[in-house]
Write a structure and sequence with these properties.
Oligomer: single chain
Shape: globular
Distance between the termini: 39 Å
Number of helices: 16
Structural class: alpha+beta
């Protein structure tokens, strides 16, 4: 790294990667060349390492097939004579955080095969190495969401959760699959709970110890895939312009959003399942973005027991979290100038935050929302009516300002609704809001708040982009430049202005810039070395386990 005459940092010369032609596989996406890997904004070294870790996880689970059969029968209350078939690895499905294993069960006195999914959490994608207990936190929040929706929103179709186990092998089973005397005791307990008007929700899951232990935390779920029901993602591109299908989909999504929001919550947070079967809103708001960044080594900015009764502290902690991630991520910048721009925009985002926090709802109420809702998380019929909602792990009670029209309904990425794609996005947004308002008229909510009005005002004020930014992985700077900055300043910031503003991001901002540039160069060298030397399980010619793509 060199410096100019005034002591400022100059951008170092770019590395020549033209002779490195090897490609290396990544977990989610096609194999990349060295130059492609250096052009990404995620940590490719970590990403490449996930491939052999996932293969090892697959092989470990495959070796435990006999244990899988036993725990499945255990949760279903079936005899040893029942036939339990575990799918071959090439039929396993993998998401970002879980491996889903198809299972078929047949009782000796029945010709019907029951189809289930054994969903195993991947510790290496859930920050377990950095923050022990993260897997169980995620499991507890998801189970809590399942139990809450079962009791409070039965109109939302979700897979039946037969049973589950945490990483410490505490096993729980839905009361419907337990012996008669256990079901009777559970029924009486819930009746007494209701009679005493206990404020905590009592779920239908009770302890069901087993002597057999699967090495992974897991959930045993109904397989909702049928001949008439498939994931929306499977034919999204083919039919996304069909107005009838889009109407049906928008109506289904609106109904889910309104059902979740029927019950106002007193604080920002996530549900938590307790060993006594109760569910409380006492976990930090477990946002998908936070888990992804924590898995990259970003420090926790919210402790697990943290909830919020006011919006401002939540926003402050989200900014703090993004700052910590910025400080620790090796390739979050392109060069010294980009580093100063990032620091300046983070400062400006804080300065304008009060414009986008509604004073009339700063202390609640808050509303349950799907924090990671996309086309792979829903099953639909041929007309795109939603038949089941899956993946409830990131449901949180969040500020009302975060309620929005799902941007992906327009076929746009989050940074695309501008210029030539603006009208496309706006047409879909207006369509959805019209449907949302119509559905809101028939929902009996326990509040008198017009959610459609708030969503419309958030769009008009530009607040939708602010809230997208602070809850996204890496879009905060871009969204600020595209949508927020023009509302306050009719031009781009000059380099000297960004340098001045960046000085207020940290007392030692100059040293921060220098450190980030040095980290970037070190990271580039490590990536080039990775491609030169290859990576076990990840480079060309190395076969991964079946089912990994």
């Amino acid at each position: 790294m060199s410096t100019s005459g005034d002591g400022s940092i100059e951008n170092p010369p770019q590395s020549d990667t033209t002779n490195i032609t090897t490609t290396i596989r990544q977990m989610n996406g096609p194999p990349l060349t060295c130059s492609q890997a250096l052009n990404t904004d995620f940590n490719f070294i970590l990403e490449a390492g996930y491939v052999p870790e996932t293969e090892a996880f697959y092989n470990k689970l495959w070796a435990e097939r006999d244990v899988m059969r036993v725990v499945v029968k255990h949760h279903l209350g079936l005899s040893d004579k029942s036939i339990c078939t575990i799918a071959d690895q090439h039929d396993w499905m993998r998401g970002f955080f879980n491996v889903c294993i198809p299972v078929e069960v047949q009782s000796p006195d029945s010709f019907h095969k029951q189809k289930l999914i054994l969903r195993c959490a991947m510790p290496h994608k859930l920050a377990e190495a950095y923050n022990p207990g993260s897997v169980d936190e995620k499991m507890g929040c998801e189970v809590g969401a399942y139990a809450w929706i079962q009791e409070r929103c039965p109109e939302i179709r979700i897979p039946h959760l037969y049973g589950f186990a945490f990483s410490n092998q505490r096993h729980f089973t839905h009361e419907a699959h337990l012996p008669l005397h256990t079901r009777a005791a559970s029924y009486l307990r819930r009746k007494l709970h209701k009679l005493l008007k206990h404020p905590l929700l009592l779920s239908r899951y009770t302890k069901n110890p087993s002597g057999h232990r699967l090495s992974s935390a897991y959930m045993l779920l109904e397989n909702v895939r049928t001949e008439d029901s498939h994931t929306l993602a499977s034919n999204w591109e083919r039919h996304q312009e069909d107005p009838i299908r889009r109407y049906n989909l928008s109506r289904s999504i609106a109904r889910i959003m309104l059902s979740l929001a029927r019950f106002p919550q007193s604080k920002i947070g996530s549900f938590q399942f307790h060993p006594n079967g109760t569910v409380t809103l006492t976990n930090r708001p477990l946002i998908c973005t936070a888990m992804i960044h924590e898995n990259e080594g970003a420090p926790m900015s919210m402790q697990r027991e943290t909830t919020y009764t006011s919006t401002e502290p939540f926003v402050a902690d989200m900014f703090h979290f993004h700052d910590k991630r910025f400080s620790g991520h090796p390739n979050v910048i392109d060069d010294a100038e980009d580093c100063r721009e990032e620091m300046a925009i983070r400062l400006l985002n804080r300065m304008v935050a009060h414009h986008y926090i509604r004073q009339d709802h700063r202390n609640g109420p808050y509303f349950l929302q799907l924090n990671d809702f996309h086309a792979s998380n829903v099953f639909v019929d041929s007309d795109w009516n939603i038949t089941s909602l899956i993946d409830l792990e990131w449901i949180c009670a969040l500020p009302v300002e975060l309620l929005e029209v799902p941007y992906w309904l327009s076929g746009c990425e989050i940074d695309e609704p501008r210029k030539e794609r603006w009208e496309d996005f706006n047409v879909v947004r207006k369509e959805f809001l019209k449907i949302f308002e119509a559905e809101a008229c028939v929902v009996r909510a326990e509040h008198g708040i017009s959610l459609a009005k708030i969503m419309r005002e958030s769009w008009e004020s530009g607040g939708v982009w602010f809230w997208h930014g602070i809850t996204s992985q890496n879009a905060m700077t871009l969204l600020f430049k595209q949508h927020i900055q023009p509302r306050f300043l009719g031009k781009s910031l000059a380099g000297s202005e960004e340098e001045m503003l960046s000085s207020f991001w940290s007392e030692d901002s100059g040293k921060v810039v220098q450190r980030k540039v040095e980290e970037l160069e070190k990271y580039k060298g490590e990536v080039e070395s990775l491609f030169s030397n290859g990576v076990k399980g990840g480079s060309d010619g190395v076969n991964g386990s079946k089912g990994l793509e």
